[in-house]
Design goal:
Distance between the termini of chain B: 40 Å
Shape of chain A: globular
Number of domains of chain A: 1
CATH topology of chain B: Glutaconate Coenzyme A-transferase
Oligomer: heterotetramer
CATH superfamily of chain A: Glutaconate Coenzyme A-transferase
Order of helices and strands of chain B: HEHEEHEHEEEEEHEEEEHEH
Strand content of chain B: 15-25%
CATH topology of chain A: Glutaconate Coenzyme A-transferase
Number of helices of chain A: 10
C-alpha cells in the first residue's frame, strides 16, 4: 500500500478514530501541531496519547477532552514550567479523569525501537533503583539467560496511528527527516497507520546522503503538505522554534477560560492554512 | 574584586567540576548553563550531549528546550533518540551526567515526579525524563540545585532516580556499577558523598556563607568534612563569559513572535 | 581518551594481542584488508575472529594460522563460491583445528547492536524452526514477560578489538562512514578498543549531513590513514569493488601452496603502502 | 518463436511471480536476476531490498555480492545492517523473501549449512546468512532453484531455515504467522504447497519438459496438481531484457584488475 497525498482533514478523518492509541512525536523539533489541532477540530475522543514529552501539543489535546490515557516520560513545557492542562487533568480530573502510564525516556525510546522492530517488548538496562516499577505494571524485570543480569522490560509501543511532521516528501511519497530526528521514524514503523505532515513536496531530494533518515512511500499511509505545520516547534532549514510562544502558552493554559477561548479562536475557527503565516514570522 | 550572585557562584562552581576530556550528558536549565560555561572557559574540548540526540554540540546561546535547533546546527553529529539512549547512554560512553532535582535526599536520590502521593499528588512534577538511566549509566553524576529545606529533604516523596540508595553499598545492590552522585553543587556550598556511608557531606563553602546558612536551608542533619575548604570565587573571565552567554540567550529567546 | 593517529604497525601492535576476540567488519563495502594483512604480518595467534561474512579477509587470517575460533553467519566468497581456507580448516583442521560458533545474520546484527548498547544479550524474533539452536549453545530462548511470546536470545558481541575501514577522519579524529555502512559503527561501539583505517584525513567534513554516520574521536582508539586499505573490497566515492580479484582468489585459496606463496609475496613482503596502487587501479 | 535456455525459463518464471507493489528481500545469485528482471519488465515499482541495507535499489548490473556499490548508488536509502534486520525484516515490512538453496525438502525447508553431519561435515556450505529470519519474517517466500535429485531430497541434512516444517500446521507451531514458501520455481516446473498438507505439488510445467523429467530430477515422490498448467514461455521482451542485464553484468565484473 503506497502512501496517498491528502488534505489534513481527510488524513485525520480516514486514519484516526475514537478510542485509538496514537503517537504524535517530535523531540522539540518537528512536532505535528497542525495535525494536533485537526484532531481537536474533528472532536475525536478517548484517545490513548503516547509521547515521550507531552508538551504543548498534548496539553491542548488533553485540555480539549480528546484523551482517555497518557503514556509519557516527561510532561512539562521545556524551559518554561508545567503543563497546566495536563496537571489539572491529573490533579483535578478536568475536563475528566486522565489515566497515566509513566515511563523513563530510555524506556519509551526502547519501546518505540522494539515496536518498529516487531518485538512484543523492549529489554534494556533501566529503572535500577527507581520507583516507577512500583506504580507501573508495565515495567517488569527479566534475567539475561547467559549472565543472569537483571534487565528491565516494557511492552513495545505499537500505536494504531502515528502522526509526525517532516521537512520534505518527494512526489512519490518518500519522506525525508533532517536534524533532530527524535523517534519519528521508529514511531511510524511501529504503527499500523501513519500521517506525515510535511513542509513541502518536492520533485526529488537532490543529492541527499544515501544514509539520510528517510521513510519509503510504502511504509507511510497519508501525506499532507502543511507549511509551518510544526509551529510553534520548528523545522530545521525552514523556521525557528517560537520560544516566545512557548512562554506565552503558560498563562493561557493556566486558566480554563483563557484556554477554552484560545482553542475556540485558534483551533475550532482555524485551519492548517493558518500555519504558513506562523512559519513566515519565524523564518530561519 | 567582582560582584556576583549566589546563582552565579553555583553555576561557576558546577562548571569547574567538568574536565576537558569529559563527555557530559546535559540536563536542561542550570546544568546547561554550567556545562556551556565550562566549554567556553577552561574545558574547550568538553563534549556536550543532549538527550535529543546531539553529540558534541557547541551552542552559542543556551537552549530553552533540550532540542533547540542551535544544538543540532553546532553539533558534530545528531543521532536518533533511541540510539542516544541505547548506544551512547546505556552503552556506557558518557563520563558525567549533570542533573537537577525538585527534591533531593542526603544520598543523592532524586525526585522530579510528584510531591505527595503518586496516585493523588499534591503537585504533579514533569517526571523523570532521562534521569532514571542517566543516574545509573553515566560514569558519575553531578547534581546542581539551589539549597532549601523544601528541596533538600530527609525523605523524598518518590525515588525518580537512584543516587546512593540507602547509603553504603546499597547502590551496587541494584547491579549498578557506576559511581553515582559524586558532587552536589548548590548556591551555598559543595557537598561530596562520605567515602563509606555515601551521605553528602559539606566539603567546600562558598565565600560569605556560614555553616548556619547551610544548616537552615537543609532538611537533613548537615555533616561537614573535617577540613572544609572555601570555594574560590568566580573570576572575571568566568563571570563575563557567563553573563554574555545569558545575555545572548535572553536576546535570542525574546526575539521571536 | 581521544583517538590517536598512528601507523598501521603501531596500531595493530598496541591494540591487538594473542588470544584476543576481534571483529573486523564491513559488509562487502569498506572491509579492512590492509589491517588484516598487518595482523598476519605481526604473527598474532589464537584470535577469536568475529564477522558476519568471513569472506576473503578471514580466509586469509584463518589460512595464515591466526585464528582459534570463528564466530560468523555466512562464510563464502560472495558470487564466487566457497572460502577454501575456511573450509579446509573446518573439514581437515589445516593449519589447525578451528572452533566455530555459527549464527544467522539477524542474530549477529542484533548481537552487535546489543553490544553497542551495553547489554549482555540480544533478544529477537529469530531461529524459529531452524536447527542452529541444536548445535550452538549460545542460542537460547526466553519468554516475553507481557505476551508469553517465545523470543531468541544470543550473547551480545563485545570484542576486545574492532577493526574497520572508513572513508574519512578529520584532523580531530572524528570518523565518517558513507554508503553501505554495515555494522561498523555498532562493532566499534561494542568493543574495548578500535582501529579505524581511513582513505584520507581531511581538515573537516564540510557540509556533511547532521545525521551522517559518524563516530566522535573519543569513541575510537587508533586512526590510520591507509589509502586503498579496503581493497579488494571498495570505498564508495574512492574506488570500486575489485570483483575480478574476488574471482582470482578462488584458485589461489584452493591450493595450500599457492595460498602460502601469495601470503608470502603480498602480505609478508608487503605493507599498507601497497594499497594505494590498488585503489588507483580501481578508481570509481 | 524465440529460443531460450532452461535457466532463462526459470528466471523469467520467477520474475513473473513478483507484483509491482511487492517489497522483496533479495538473496544473491538467481533471486537477484529474477527480481531485477521483474523490475525491468512488468513491475517497475517493485521495491528491492538487499540485506546490506539498501532499500529500493535499482541496479543497472547485477551485483556480484549483496553489497556492491551499485546497490547503494541506485537505492532510495541505505540503512545500517542492524536496522535492516530489526526494523525492516523483523518489523514485518517485507512482503516477499526470495531464496535459493543447496538442499530442499518437499515442505520447503532449506539447507545451506552442511552436507553430512554438522560436526563432521562432508561439505561445509556458506551457512544461513539472512535466510533463517527471511524465511519466517517475510510475508511469503519464493524459492528458485535448479532441479536435481541431489538438491531436492526427501530429508535435508540440516534445517537452515524453516519452510512448512513437517507439513500441515507445523510451521505455525513455532509461533510463525507468515505464509512461508508459497512458490518453488525450478528450471523444469513451478510447484506450490498443497493447501492442507503443505507439501509442494507441481502446478505448472515448463514447455518441452515431461512429468518423467521432473520425477527423475526430484528426490521425493513428486505430486502433480489435478490441473497442471503449461508455463508460458518467455516473451521476446523478457528475454532481451534478461540477456542485456547479464551482458552488462559480465562486462562490469570483468572490467577490473
Amino acid at each position: 500500500m503506497v502512501a496517498r497525498f491528502m488534505t489534513l482533514k481527510e488524513a485525520v478523518a480516514s486514519c484516526v478514530k475514537d478510542g485509538d492509541t496514537i503517537a504524535m512525536e517530535g523531540f522539540t523539533h518537528l512536532i505535528p501541531h497542525a495535525a494536533g489541532n485537526e484532531i481537536i477540530r474533528q472532536g475525536i475522543k478517548d484517545l490513548t496519547l503516547i509521547r515521550m514529552t507531552p508538551d504543548m501539543i498534548y496539553d491542548q489535546l488533553i485540555g480539549a477532552g480528546c484523551a482517555k490515557k497518557l503514556v509519557f516520560s516527561w510532561g512539562g513545557n521545556p524551559g518554561v514550567g508545567s503543563l497546566h492542562r495536563l496537571r489539572e487533568a491529573i490533579q483535578d480530573h478536568w475536563p475528566h479523569k486522565l489515566e497515566i502510564e509513566e515511563h523513563s525516556h530510555a524506556a519509551m525510546a526502547n519501546a518505540y525501537d522494539a515496536g518498529a522492530a516487531g518485538l512484543p517488548c523492549a529489554v534494556f538496562k533501566g529503572y535500577r533503583g527507581a520507583e516507577l516499577p512500583r506504580v507501573n505494571k508495565n515495567i517488569k524485570f527479566i534475567e539475561c539467560p547467559f549472565t543472569g543480569e537483571r534487565l528491565a522490560a516494557v511492552p513495545s509501543i505499537r500505536p494504531d496511528v502515528t502522526v509526525v511532521h517532516a521537512q520534505k516528501a518527494n512526489k512519490k511519497g518518500d519522506i525525508l527527516f533532517e536534524g533532530i530526528v527524535g523517534v519519528q521514524k521508529e514511531a511510524v514503523l511501529a504503527a499500523q497507520k501513519s500521517i506525515i505532515t510535511v513542509e513541502e513536496i518536492v520533485d526529488d531530494f537532490g543529492d541527499v546522503s544515501p544514509n539520510a533518515v528517510m521513510l519509503p512511500n510504502w511504509a507511510v499511509t497519508a501525506i499532507v503538505e502543511v507549511p509551518g505545520g510544526a509551529h510553534p516547534s520548528y523545522a530545521q532549514g525552514y523556521y525557528k522554534r517560537d520560544n516566545a510562544f512557548y512562554k506565552a502558552w503558560d498563562p493561557i493554559a493556566r486558566d480554563r477560560e483563557a484556554f477554552k477561548a484560545w482553542i475556540e479562536e485558534h483551533v475550532m475557527n482555524g485551519g492548517p492554512e493558518d500555519f504558513a503565516a506562523k512559519r513566515d514570522a519565524n523564518k530561519a | 574584586m567582582v560582584d556576583y550572585s549566589p546563582t552565579e557562584m553555583m553555576t561557576v562552581s558546577a562548571a569547574r567540576a567538568l574536565k576537558n576530556d569529559d563527555v557530559c550528558f546535559v540536563g536542561i536549565g542550570m546544568p546547561s548553563a554550567a556545562c556551556n560555561l565550562a566549554r567556553l572557559t577552561h574545558a574547550p574540548e568538553l563534549t556536550l550531549i543532549y538527550e535529543s540526540g546531539t553529540i558534541g554540540t557547541k551552542p552559542d546561546v543556551l537552549p530553552l528546550s533540550i532540542g533547540d535547533g542551535e544544538l543540532c546546527e553546532t553539533a558534530m553529529n545528531t543521532v536518533a533518540v533511541p540510539e542516544m539512549f541505547r548506544y551512547w547512554l546505556q552503552g556506557g560512553k558518557i563520563s558525567v551526567g549533570f542533573l537537577g532535582a525538585a527534591q533531593l535526599d542526603k544520598y543523592g536520590n532524586i525526585n522530579t515526579t510528584v510531591i505527595g502521593d503518586y496516585d493523588n499528588p499534591k503537585v504533579r512534577l514533569p517526571g523523570g525524563g532521562g534521569a532514571p538511566e542517566i543516574a545509573t549509566s553515566c560514569g558519575e553524576v553531578f547534581i546542581v540545585m539551589k539549597q532549601s529545606k523544601r528541596g533538600f529533604v530527609e525523605k523524598i516523596d518518590f525515588v525518580t532516580s537512584l543516587g546512593h540508595g540507602t547509603g553504603g553499598e546499597d547502590r551496587a545492590s541494584y547491579g549498578v556499577e557506576t559511581k553515582g552522585p559524586s558532587r552536589l553543587i548548590t548556591d551555598l556550598c559543595i557537598m561530596e558523598p562520605h567515602p563509606m556511608g555515601k551521605q553528602f557531606i559539606v566539603t567546600s563553602i562558598h565565600p560569605g556563607v556560614t555553616r548556619e546558612d547551610i544548616i537552615e536551608n537543609t532538611g537533613w542533619d548537615v555533616e561537614f568534612a573535617d577540613e572544609v575548604a572555601q570555594t574560590p570565587i568566580p573570576n572575571e573571565n568566568e563571570l563575563s563569559v557567563l553573563r554574555a552567554l545569558h545575555a545572548r540567550t535572553a536576546k535570542a529567546h525574546e526575539g521571536q513572535q
